[in-house]
């Protein structure tokens, strides 16, 4: 679908892509767009690929480029519900690969289905003391894609173990501590190290059990609908990213088996810093 703002005065050329656009005036071009993997975890890098129908870059007074974007309808906080990547100039018929890395959009994806588009965007190149082309921005959608983010990379094991509905047996988090030597100043950060004893399960071996880490800045405020981090299988320790040294943090850790069953312990530990 092509959307155009039409003819506008030169003084209004500098409109953003977020501005409302007018009705379609040309037929949408559709090209096959692939994404791998189709299903991943909050930490998965999704690779979008397609064959560019047009040459992009700067030609005369017009700049043309592709934008790959994806969004979902999640209202969760602390995770990425949208992503957008501008593709470098391409040749016509060139095979394009774009990696959507959650670390570039906040650290981890929100859970759920993402709907994506590949858009071709044309805009004027306004040179100093030169007359600008009399159009603002033309957006042409050339393809669509989608992918799903699930809580566990072992989510497919639900089908392999349909009768397994028993969560792991887990005593919960034992300790949460940091060590920040010397005086602490505003703006400094330090990681917290969490530790626990391994969980056991009726089907999944302990070496394959993963742990969801939940963090809150006040006691009992953890959001158990969406973990802050998920460990590698079999882990019994986890080091968080750097957190504000003067902050107050509470942690809960829950064990999850390959079938996606998660224990419901509420053992909360206040992060301490014995080195202060």
Question: How is this fold's topology laid out?
Answer:
Elements: E1 2-4, E2 33-36, E3 39-40, E4 46-51, E5 57-59, E6 62-71, E7 82-86, E8 95-100, E9 112-124, E10 138-149, H1 157-160, E11 173-177, E12 189-190, E13 193-196, E14 210-216, E15 229-230, E16 237-239, E17 243-244, E18 250-256, E19 268-270
Parallel strand pairs: 3-10
Antiparallel strand pairs: 1-10, 2-4, 4-8, 5-6, 6-7, 6-9, 9-10, 11-13, 12-17, 13-16, 14-15, 14-18, 18-19
Task: Summarize the entry for a quick read.
By secondary structure, this protein is an all-beta fold. The chain has one helix at residues 157-160; strands at 2-4, 33-36, 39-40, 46-51, 57-59, 62-71, 82-86, 95-100, 112-124, 138-149, 173-177, 189-190, 193-196, 210-216, 229-230, 237-239, 243-244, 250-256, 268-270. 1% of the residues lie in helices and 36% in strands.
List keywords for this structure.
about 280 residues; mainly beta; Immunoglobulin-like; 2 domains; seven-stranded mixed sheet; four-stranded antiparallel sheet; 19 strands; about 35% strand; globular; disordered N terminus
Description of the structure:
The chain starts with a strand and ends in a 6-residue tail after the last strand. The protein has 276 residues and is mostly beta strands. Strands 1, 3, 5, 6, 7, 9 and 10 form a 7-stranded mixed sheet that branches. It has a 4-stranded antiparallel sheet with strand order 15-14-18-19, with no helix packed on it. The protein has one helix at residues 157-160; strands at residues 2-4, 33-36, 39-40, 46-51, 57-59, 62-71, 82-86, 95-100, 112-124, 138-149, 173-177, 189-190, 193-196, 210-216, 229-230, 237-239, 243-244, 250-256, 268-270.
